[in-house]
């Protein structure tokens, strides 16, 4: 077990951010989700993009946005549930928070536990720090260039995440709700041994722990779904030569810096 060297991190032109306070925001959001989860999903609203919205999404979003604005008032917040900032404005942001207050709402409604809280810090359109919190298990994953990649268990045990760089017999992790036939052709190019389906950004968590080596996704996705996982230095994001296909491969950024992604695939 290892411990982080500092409770703060900063980027050029940005005040230092207290890491413990930032992680606490994610935990508080997770607690709010679980409180509503224990009472049942409740009313489900279908948004204009045909995706579901629950009281848990809204409660988590309110806590995260409020917490981030208090902690870092100079950094804008873009959330899945607050998408009203025009692109012409936000494209000029040097830094901003990219938030999915409840990733895996469909899984939340199905009550299978496969949902997460995602918070990422974006610098010049690149994710540089990310948090993934798993409310049901209490596991918290976070990582960035200056912090390293870590998993904190519900009991507080903290372990640094390192990639095993497995050469063959890869475990591929995909989504339960987004599998596509086109992905089969892509995966034939890689040494795949088995495939596992899991919802939300839990896919990134499996890769970060070395329990899976690649995440495939054929088709478009949103930045708040992927940014927190991309920022974790324990995973590498690459865009396939296949149109609109994204792959996340378990190879450290530091070993292949020229191949790391510059943006999320949104």
Automatic annotation (TrEMBL):
InterPro entries linked: CysQ, CysQ/Inositol_MonoPase, Inositol_monoP_metal-BS, Inositol_monophosphatase-like
Cellular localization per UniProt: Cell membrane
Catalytic activity: adenosine 3',5'-bisphosphate + H2O = AMP + phosphate
GO BP annotations, alphabetical order: 3'-phosphoadenosine 5'-phosphosulfate metabolic process; sulfate assimilation
Positions that bind Mg(2+) 1: 80, 100, 102-103, 225
Membrane topology: Peripheral membrane protein
Principal location: membrane
PANTHER family listed in its UniProt record: 3'(2'),5'-BISPHOSPHATE NUCLEOTIDASE 1
Protein name per UniProt: 3'(2'),5'-bisphosphate nucleotidase CysQ
UniProt organism field: Mucilaginibacter terrigena
């Amino acid at each position: 077990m290892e411990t982080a060297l500092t409770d703060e991190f900063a980027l050029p032109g940005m005040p230092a951010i207290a890491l413990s306070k930032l992680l606490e925001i994610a935990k508080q959001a997770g607690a709010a989700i679980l409180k509503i989860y224990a009472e049942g999903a409740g009313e489900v609203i279908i948004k204009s993009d045909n995706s579901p919205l629950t009281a848990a999404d809204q409660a988590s979003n309110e806590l995260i946005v409020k917490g981030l604005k208090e902690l870092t008032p100079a950094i804008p917040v873009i959330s899945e549930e607050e998408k009203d900032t025009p692109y012409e404005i936000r494209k000029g942001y040097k830094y901003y928070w990219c938030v999915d207050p409840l990733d895996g709402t469909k899984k939340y409604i199905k009550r299978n536990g496969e949902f997460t809280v995602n918070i990422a810090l974006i610098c010049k359109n690149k994710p540089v720090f990310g948090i993934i919190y798993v409310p049901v298990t209490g596991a918290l994953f976070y990582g960035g260039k200056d912090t390293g990649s870590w998993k904190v268990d519900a009991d507080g045990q903290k372990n640094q995440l390192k990639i095993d760089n497995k050469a063959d017999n890869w475990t591929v992790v995909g989504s339960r709700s987004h599998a596509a036939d086109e992905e089969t052709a892509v995966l034939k190019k890689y040494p795949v041994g088995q495939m596992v389906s899991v919802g939300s950004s839990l896919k990134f968590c499996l890769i970060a722990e070395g329990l899976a080596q690649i995440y495939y996704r054929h088709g478009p996705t949103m930045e708040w779904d992927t940014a927190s996982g991309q920022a974790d230095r324990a995973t590498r994001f690459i865009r396939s030569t296949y149109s609109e296909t994204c792959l996340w491969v378990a190879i450290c950024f530091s070993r292949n810096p020229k191949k790391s992604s510059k943006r999320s695939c949104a």
